[in-house]
Input
Amino acid sequence: MKRYFGVFLSAPLFLIGLGIFIYFQSQAAGTFNQTRDRLMLIAANNALSISADEVFSIPLEDRSEGTPEYLAVYQKLLRIKEANPFVKYVYIMTSTNQPGVLQYVIDADPVPQIITAKCPTALPGDKYDANRFPEMLKAFEGPSADKKISADEWGMFLSGYAPIKDINGRTVAILGVDFDAANLKTRQNKAHFAGQVALFMGIFSFIILGFSFAQPR
Output
């Protein structure tokens, strides 16, 4: 009888710990998914404002910077960032003859206060290995966004992507928008840790109380 009484007392502690664990996990997942959906929507909506002709008008070489064609699209990318201040990078990429390797058409600089020596601007024609980011490659088929926070030489990001199509519906390039996810990653880690601690304490209390009442007196 005492054994069942111990389980009866400790079960609520376990359920509370489990509930807290689920709450923290769902909060972290909810924030991540909301950010991911927002980035995908920003990319999809703004890709419609960039034409294939504008992309084709920019030669994929360093000297393209400063040309009227380059600056016209560059200004569009800057307006995307101005309308979405939480976005750090906006860029256009096109494919190459190497599987999974893309090349920059335009990379809009981050705003001046967050430029560092470690976040250079990619020039037209610069290659980028996208094999690490499957959702980036899927953007040639339709809007997509990273399913996890990833890091590259520019930092730690969560990104959304969308195709830029010609009048025949053929994808000629993709538009990418990057959110600096370092703080989001920290919050995720804290939420996971807090949830795991709560779950552990619930299990520990369940075992200790159950064991205590199970002992003969």
